[in-house]
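Q: Could you predict the 3D structure of Transposase?
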Amino acid sequence: MRRSGSAEEQIVVMLKEQEAGKPTYDVCRTLGVSAATFYKCKTRFGGREVSDARRLKALDVENGKLRNLLAVAMPPSRDSAAQCPAGQ
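A: Sure. Here are the predicted structure tokens for Transposase:
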């Protein structure tokens, strides 16, 4: 399956199609994924709604931004200063 910004949403839609009665083979063929990939996705994303996938993606983005802000705001620790060679 090709990567895109809405991969989680596509996976949730794929799982809903299969749950609605569409054969797994047809769902996999339509999206170009193997049966093994389908069942891995089912294990990971089963029971989620599209809105849940969007919310999870937004939380991941926000978490990354907060981690970057924290890394910039935190002064270097004494441990990291002790590991730097003298004169640098």
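Q: Anything worth pointing out?
A: The chain has five helices and no strands.
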